[in-house]
Amino acid sequence: xxSTQPGASCHTHATADAxxxxxxxxxxxxxxxxxxxxxxTFLADLEVGGGELAAFVLDEFEAYLRCGILAHGLLRxxxxxxxHSRVVAFACKRRGFCPSCLGRRMADTAAFCVDHLxxxxxxxxxxxxxxxxxxFKMAYSPDATSVVLGAFISAINSDLRRRxxxxxxxxxxxxGSLTVVQRFGSSLNLNVHFHAIVMxxxxxxxxxxxxxxxxxxxxxxxxxxxxxxxxxxxxxxxVGQISGEDQDRQLTLDHLADASxxxxxxxxxxxxCRVLRLGGTGEDAEAAIIGKRCAEVAGFNVHANVRVRANxxxxxxxxxxxxxxxxxxxxxxxxxPDGRLALRFKQAWRDDYASHCTSDITCPRCQSPLxxxxxxxxxxxxxxxxxxxxxxxxxPKLYPARPPPSASGGEGGDWLN
Length: 417
Description:
Blueprint (H helix, E strand, L loop, with lengths): L13 H4 L12 H19 L6 H12 L7 E6 L5 E5 L9 H19 L5 E7 L2 H9 L1 H25 L6 E2 L2 E8 L5 E10 L1 E5 L5 E5 L5 H19 L11 H11 L27 E3 L2 E4 L2 E9 L4 H11 L9 E3 L5 E3 L26 E7 L2 H10 L29
Helix pairs in contact: 4-9, 5-6, 6-7
């Protein structure tokens, strides 16, 4: 057990500097409007084809369509100093794709890791990407995901101890890491992979029972190649013993996931075609070492070239936020002139959210904290309150399902491109 004494929290005095609360109005975002317009049509298209989405997928989308909408429930808060009151909509708090809830979770997770979890020692990020067939298996099998993750962390720990013993460190050597399982790629494709923040060194147990940290030099390219080979070997031996995917999954979700893994359109007139890409593309040549501290073996790609210095707490927080980021950021979506959507790829260390998401809601008039005075779920009461405040009293309506597109491009249009 490693005992650490983190430095003073950079989030302790968030309330004093927090900006007044402003509702984020999800119904005005491009993502919400897109789902609002196409969700019913998408479900109708699946039904025509004899498909049905899993219940948890339906719940995730329906919860998102209710998230932040005042007509679905609200809190009333009041300033204890000036008496100003306002309403705050319920949040879905889901872990799927809601940019608002996942953005808040990202900031909270990063703050906790920096303030309470990681000691002031250097840290290195290890990223493991996997072969396509294994990604698809892990998308449905928690057992397969656990086996691959265990093999990945075991290989990293073995490499750290091996390099430490080369430096004449003996006895019981301890390591530490935090791993985030990401299920999405930068283009929103299904891509189950691992990001691990690993303390870049080992702890040596002292005679009195205390732990002394020994930082290690950066791994060489050959060290990372050996690590990739070890992961490939461990996973190949173990994953074959795991039974197939969960038997109760929906075949429709199976089809959608398979198309997402391979970057194909799953439904509509372009079914089976590759997702259109804007900009140049290229294929990396197969090689044992394909970059600085980056190696690939049989589809197992390990990258370990990102390091954070011992006292760089801001850098560590940026890295934690990157690991815990939501799959979709509203400002990365844009609507093209022809009605299609374009997703702008996110650059490294891009920060889309405020630094102090854990602060109290403050009064826009006097900056004092707003206190909760009521939690309201009764529709009639919500309607009266919103009407009195001049706010919309009904939730945004879903667009009705449209007929499927015709071959001639008539009614319905190419709505799934």
